[in-house]
Design a protein that fits this description.
By secondary structure, the protein is α/β, with parallel strands linked by helices. The strands form five sheets. An eight-stranded mixed beta barrel has the order 12-13-15-16-17-18-19-20, surrounded by eight helices. A five-stranded mixed beta sheet has the order 6-7-5-10-11, sandwiched between helices. The protein has a two-stranded antiparallel sheet with strand order 1-2. The chain is elongated, with a radius of gyration of 39 Å. It binds ligand C2E and calcium ion (2 copies).
Length: about 650
């Protein structure tokens, strides 16, 4: 027969070119890469031995018979194995190599491999696949079955890919299925036209297609920086996790590039980043991965000294300047480590933990390695969720404002109340203000939250006929971030004006963090508002600095004793003494005292005896929604009788 073997030669060339392209780029030593290269090697082997076999068949008398057998056996073996390996490769790519499906498929593959090997190995004696008769090449009784096995493998490929659609994108799905279908067609053509040795050529084209779509090393490279990208990072993590290997990720973030960006332009900052990366890859062994923006990572075996050594080296390197366009630029860097599986158990969790660790390093202004923990990561994640909820609550103005009545000992009435913000989320339920206010302060939303609260307070005072209910004023919490806005006083007054609220109906509470800030803007805001008739209270007194200068320097009218001070004095004599002296000191400055956290009648009595002017706490009422608060005020006299008058009478 006149075999057309030129396609085989083309196939060999194509596979060599693809291999060359593959090796010319940085690539990860993954199992799929190994299988991919194995497919290439099998196609080359099959093509090569196809050509040799054509030559040997044409010169059958020259070659010893055993050699003729071996050449053809190698051809058949490599040809059939190509499809078995392609099947295994797809199982891996689609992540179906694990679980029940994976186990069954592995068993089928093993059986097929054994069948192929045995059938081909025994062919010289059993005439299974081919044999020679009168120096002529003949097909054995299993010859067609061997092709049928290739069909089954390819059908298996199509089935696996189609049933793994979630794990594989559309482009890859089309590529892998096309490869399988075209292979089937090519094998059928060769079965019909025996002399047309087309199969390997088609396989080599498909090998190229595979390289271009699924196995392109570029997919895992950051081409500009010539290091691995986040996809390679996630892949390496998954690989180690699958093998149940413990490891540590060292992540770092470069700071200062934005500055270069603004000053010298994007190109310079990109060039600088490339210099930094080059330096880091030169100075350190181990693969460096580019996560995103200025964030990078290394992966090390657990308990090796590598993470520590790398961190030390990075710290040392960033002490000296980097150069771009002959300008020396000082960059800084934050670092954190994440341990697998203690801190994070999946790639998603690892990325979260890295973000949490690097953010923590920035928040704490730490240049040391932040060792992330499960708790810190979970907290960070919750903060991110709450931040998200806050944004939508601000958009929808869905905060509620509750009121907690405050009892005035002089007036013998609930003449004031504190406005307290409430945030509810469908999934997380009630989120305490202690938790979301600091987050809102950090992400800047506090200004809008404060605005919404103040609008709602004014709206309530306008609609509820506060005076008739006996409400003299409402205490509104102000965050220090609000107090440091230059125009705050104008802004707040304009809101009160809009609702027609007399300025003296609002008392603003500020927490004693002001010792740490520049007071000028705060004082100006306070002065302007006090001039108009508002008053100010120091909140949470007794929890912060022992410095009390601000009581003298700032124009406060009220001091709110923190609940912890009240509770400590309840069952501790020394704390009681402190409370007595504190109260006396405050009174001597001409200030009034509000005691918070009053939960029992005894506490109320004790606080009255030390000179407190106002009492606030669960003993009288928890913070309640506006309508309930109106109801409470309507029955206030009854409440005072039950909670105070009657009990006082019982004592005397
Ligand atoms: P705060 O200003 O010290 O508010 C008093 C807190 O003590 C309130 O907690 C109140 O519900 C609680 N409380 C009152 N009496 C008792 C009692 O007898 N026992 C106990 N166990 N707790 C009592 P809440 O509403 O959870 O608020 C927590 C903090 O969140 C507030 O502490 C305040 O710092 C902040 N906050 C609340 N609303 C606002 C707001 O509108 N703006 C700003 N900037 N901060 C707010
Ligand atoms: Ca308060
Ligand atoms: Ca307080």
């Amino acid at each position: 027969m006149n075999y057309i073997f030129h396609y085989d030669i083309a196939a060999i060339l194509i596979c060599i070119i693809v291999g060359g392209l593959f090796f010319s780029k940085k690539h990860i030593p993954s199992q799929s890469n190994r299988l991919f290269l194995c497919i290439g090697a099998l196609i080359i082997t099959a093509s090569l031995f196809d050509v040799i076999s054509v030559y040997s068949l044409n010169h059958i008398e020259v070659f010893p018979m055993w050699l003729n057998y071996i050449i053809n056996q190698i051809y058949f073996f490599s040809f059939n194995c190509t499809y078995v390996i392609y099947f295994i490769y797809l199982l891996l790519i689609t992540e179906r190599h694990k679980g029940r499906y994976g186990k069954i498929m592995k068993k089928i593959n093993t059986v097929v491999l054994i069948f192929i090997t045995v059938a081909i190995a025994i062919t010289p004696w059993a005439k299974t696949i081919f044999y020679f008769e009168n120096n002529e090449y003949k097909h054995g009784f299993l010859h067609t079955i061997l092709y049928a096995v290739a069909f089954i493998m390819l059908a298996g490929c199509i089935f696996t890919v189609l049933t793994s659609r979630r794990k594989i994108n559309n482009m890859h799905l089309i590529t892998t299925c096309t490869i399988a279908i075209i292979s089937i067609v090519a094998i059928m053509i060769q079965l019909i036209w025996n002399e047309l040795l087309l199969v390997n050529f088609v396989a080599s084209l498909l090998f190229f297609m595979l390289f271009h779509s699924l196995q392109n090393p570029d997919d895992y490279l950051d081409k500009e920086l010539d290091i691995f990208n986040i996809k390679a990072f996630l892949r390496e993590i998954t690989k180690r996790a699958d093998k149940k290997k413990e490891f540590t990720v060292l992540a770092f973030e470069i700071e200062g590039l934005q500055f270069v960006d603004q000053l010298m332009g994007v190109e310079s900052s990109n060039e600088l980043l490339a210099t930094v990366v080059k330096d880091c890859t030169k100075g350190l062994k181990g693969d460096m991965y580019h996560l995103e923006g200025p964030r990078f990572a290394y992966i090390f075996d657990k308990n090796s000294k590598d993470a520590e050594e790398h961190a030390d080296w990075l710290k040392w390197r960033f002490v000296t300047a980097f150069h771009v366009n002959r300008v020396a630029v000082n960059l800084t860097m934050r670092m954190c480590t994440v341990d697998f599986p203690e801190v994070a158990e999946s790639s998603e969790e690892i990325l979260n933990a890295i973000s949490s660790g690097l953010d923590e390093a920035k928040e704490e202004n730490s240049y040391d390695v932040v060792v992330t923990t499960r708790e810190s990561t979970e907290k960070h994640q919750r903060s991110a969720i709450i931040s998200h909820i806050l944004k939508s609550a601000v958009r929808n103005k869905s905060f509620e404002v509750y009121f907690q009545p405050i009892y005035s000992i002089d007036d013998k009435a609930f003449s004031a109340a504190e406005a307290l913000v409430r945030l509810r989320d469908e999934e997380l339920g009630f989120i305490p203000p202690d938790e979301f206010i600091p987050i809102a302060e950090q992400n800047g939303l506090i200004l809008e939250v404060g605005d919404i609260v103040f609008h709602k307070v004014c709206e309530f005072l306008q609609s509820a006929d506060a005076k008739d209910l006996g409400i003299r004023y409402v205490e509104v919490n102000l965050s220090m971030v609000q107090c440091l806005q230059e125009d705050l006083h104008k802004h707040l007054k304009s809101i009160m004006d809009r609702y027609g609220i007399p300025y003296n109906m609002i008392d603003f509470e500020v927490t004693e963090t002001f010792s740490a800030v520049d007071n000028k803007i705060l004082v100006n805001n306070m002065d302007r508002l006090i001039d108009s008739g508002c008053t100010f209270a120091v909140d949470d007194y007794g929890t912060g600095y022992s410095n009390t200068d601000y009581l003298i320097e700032l124009p406060f009218e009220l001091v709110k004793l923190d609940k912890s001070v009240v509770w400590a004095a309840t069952d501790n004599e020394k704390a009681m003494k402190v409370l007595e002296h504190t109260a006396a000191m405050i009174k001597s400055l001409g200030l009034k005292i509000v005691a918070e956290g009053v939960e029992t009648f005894e506490q109320a009595l004790m606080l009255r005896s030390v000179g407190c002017d106002f009492l606030q706490g669960y003993y009288f009422s928890k913070p309640i929604p506006p309508a309930e608060y109106v109801e409470f005020m309507r029955n206030a006299e009854q409440c005072i009788k039950e909670k105070l008058t009657d009990r006082l009478a019982m004592l005397s």
